Amino acid sequence: MWNLDKYGQNIAVVTENGQKVTYSEFNSHCKNLTMNIPSRCLVFNLCRNEIGSLVGYIGFLNARIVPLMLKADLDDELLGHCLETYKPDYIYVPKDQKSRFSDYRCVYEKLDYALLKTPFNHEYKLFDDLALLLTTSGSTGSPKLVRQSYRNIEANTKSIVEYLKLDSTERPITTLPMNYTYGISILNTHLWVGASIILTEKGLMQKEFWQQFKEYEATSFGGVPYTYEMLARLRFFMMSLPSLRYMTQAGGKLSPELHEKFAEWALKNGKKFIVMYGQTEATARMSYLPAEKSLEKYGSMGIAIPRGKLSLIDVDGKTITEPETVGELVYEGENVTLGYAQCGEDLSLGDERHGRLITGDMAKFDNDGFFYIVGRKKRFLKIYGNRVNLDETERLIKAHFPEIECACAGVDDNMKIFITDDSYKDKIITFISEKTGLNRAAFGVSVISEIPKNEAGKTLYSELEKTIGKA
Amino acid sequence: MTNLEIYTKVFVDTFGISEEEAKVLKFQDIKAWDSVGHMGLIANLEEAFNIMMETDDIIDLNSFEKGKELLAKYDIDFAK
User: Fold this and answer.
1) What residues of chain B lie within 8 A of the CB of A434, using their CB?
2) With an 8 Å Cβ cutoff, are A206 and B59 in contact?
3) Radius of gyration of the CA atoms of chain B, in A
4) Which residues from chain B sit within 8 angstroms of residue A209, using beta carbons?
5) Structural domains in chain B, sorted by start
6) Chain B nearest CA to A379, separation (Å)
7) Among the residues of A216-299, which ranges form H helices?
8) Along the 471 residues of chain A, how does pLDDT read in single tens digits?
9) Cβ distance of A203 and B16 shorter than 8 Å
């Protein structure tokens, strides 16, 4: 996938403590790791924004070993469920987590990461073009995975490099996790062009992040809607960031107000602000709003990426040709992934989508052909950029508190959990926040006398949604 | 309520913890105090004391104790 030696003496990575690693050194790290794995197989990569984790990701892909990327602090129970379902041959973890897997034998240790051998050996057949596995909803630990191929990753990487006009002088700083498709696409594209990645586990709200930003002269970062809300609160518009060239936004719809503010700031300060749209199911990106249109078309997700095609279909599946008409968004391109996996056997499946993805998002386009997201067909929310399935959340709560009734609804970044017993309020927030790893601020509990249901016993979510506005 | 009581209550309410836990709390000691939680904390402190904090102070506030020091700049007197 990546021809790392091509950029030999360029700096590939700048770590949190300022260590600079060249492309050829990085390539050696990758090879030293993967030579411990005798043949193509499945590996779990428990990631952080650290060099060990990145060496794993790139090394595995280059050696045709298939990684499932998971966050390093994934809850034990959810991780156990993934292990049981997919039975990987190895698990690659931060050194400080080795004790979590004391039954597994350590076969290699370097850069504060350890490669551990599980008792499983090629339990499931892997489809030949399968490159990478990502969760659809990392936070609820659903074992439903997206299957991405080498071709998908290469196609999407090339399109992004083209529309962002990336070259080896770029230095993005990490703001998104490595198990998240948007975070990964930033790594993919910049390593493709020989640029330098500033790796940090620190967040926007920490002094150390901004010290690294300034000291290593970051040229770009990406953010989900919540990132931009935080930046606005941090008085970002007053900051002096001379090295910054561009900012991207994806992972959910940014409020039109913030879109306008950041677009305006960028134009005034000679920076670029690029709003994009994508899904793990399309590798990463499907559309982008060119920087020069960011203010004129604020609120829009833009146009299809190079070599991709966006269209809308009505309820009968017919293509919509009239502007300002809402329909379901369909994307076609080489980055449309193979399909899902729900069990080990599914890893041998081939391409089920044939380059066409029905996104589940409702959209319209204007007279100039710019697309706008207006809603969502399926029952999930985006919380801090993470897809959180409402039915799965309900199931987690009911499984843990079998004695209560509950229903989940709400809006992005703000889930409402409806219950009928007041005494569970705190317990539920604590439980679900721990389980999903999402901050408790994202969850609210409403106590109602009864969960509205139809005669068949199905929850009437439309009734629940109505109470949200009133509460 | 004294300023210290108001200050402590903001931590207790934002993170869902006890007063005892709040008083020794540092950034990332608990999951609730991550960057998202930090933004909530700042918003709640600004509202409780009717102030607008500067960027440097927002990113410097990494413990319960440090916050008291920083808020003194905004004329919040913890002796009262």
Assistant:
1) 31
2) yes
3) 11
4) 59
5) 3-72 (1.10.1200.10)
6) 24
7) 225-233, 256-268
8) 999 999 999 999 999 999 999 999 999 999 999 999 999 999 999 999 999 999 999 999 999 999 999 999 888 888 999 999 999 999 999 999 999 999 999 999 999 999 999 999 999 999 999 999 999 865 666 789 999 999 999 999 999 999 999 999 999 999 999 999 999 999 999 999 999 999 999 999 999 999 999 999 999 999 999 999 999 989 999 999 999 999 999 999 999 999 999 999 999 999 999 999 999 999 999 999 999 999 999 999 999 999 999 999 999 999 999 999 999 999 999 999 999 999 999 999 999 999 999 999 999 999 999 999 998 888 889 998 888 989 889 999 998 999 999 999 999 999 999 999 999 998 999 999 988 889 999 999 999 988 998 887 888 888 887 776 554
9) no
What sign does the dihedral A407-A409-A410-A415 (CA atoms) show?
Answer: positive
SS3 B8: helix
CA distance A205 to chain B (A): 5
- Domain A380-470 belongs in CATH node 3.30.300.30: yes
Name which of B15, B31, B53, B61 to mutate to probe chain A: the one with the most chain A Cβ atoms within 10 A of its Cβ: B31
Q: Which CATH code for domain A4-307+337-347? A: 3.40.50.12780
pTM: 0.91
Contact (Cβ atoms closer than 8 angstroms) between residue A312 and residue A319: yes
| Domain positions in chain A | 4-307+337-347, 380-470
Distance of CA A312 to the CA centre of its chain: 24
* Contact indicator for A171, A195 with CB cutoff of 8 Å: yes
